Amino acid sequence: MLINSLNKALNELVSLLNQLSSDDFTSPCKALSNSTIGEHTRHIIEMFQCLENQYESGVVNYDKRNRDYRIQSDTNFALHCIADIKSQLLKEDKKLKLQQFIDCEEILIDSNYFRELLYNLEHCIHHQALIKVAVLQFDHLQIDDNFGVARSTIEYRKQCAQ
Asked: What whole-number distance in Å separates Cα of residue 32 and Cα of residue 36?
């Protein structure tokens, strides 16, 4: 179920990226403090990449992102990265440590792979909601009504409609 939800969210992002011109992808959006759709896309991708790249070590630190400019400036490269992520999601659940440095102090928190996948799904949806704000300025783009909407909100709306 989790993998299906992850694929759905990533496929929604792919669908959007396939509609964007290079200018759409890289133009600053005033409503997003002049960040771009590309920057939010890069952030989504790099969080997944952190989990993938650090899975074997057992210690995940999301602050250790590459911040690869190509992801935020080239939709084809971003699409390639998403395809890589989708192909690598199916892994065994295992214990992980989540590492972060706050005010020069190391914090290590027990976690596991599935929990971090869930975190990445929620993080992806959050950034898709921000991307949706930028997309609203373009009349030529079509996105799913549920793009950037939490899965729990979608389920709640379904219950209310009944």
From this structure: 8
Angle between helices 2-17 and 113-135 (to 10 degrees): 30
Tell me the DSSP string of 75-136: HHHHHHHHHHHHHT------EEEEEEEETTEEEEEEEEHHHHHHHHHHHHHHHHHHHHHHHT
What crossing angle do the helices spanning 2-17 and 75-87 adopt, rounded to 10°?
Answer: 170
More confident residue, 119 or 158: 119
Residue 40: which of 49, 55, 28 has the closest Cα?
28
For tokens 């990265």, the residue is 81
Position 122 confidence tier, pLDDT thresholds 50, 70, 90: very high
Q: pLDDT digits over 32-54, tens only?
A: 999 999 999 999 999 999 999 99
Burial class (CB in 10 A: 0-12, 13-18, 19+), 57: exposed
Contact 73, 39 (CB under 8 A): no
Residue with tokens 């070590």: 57
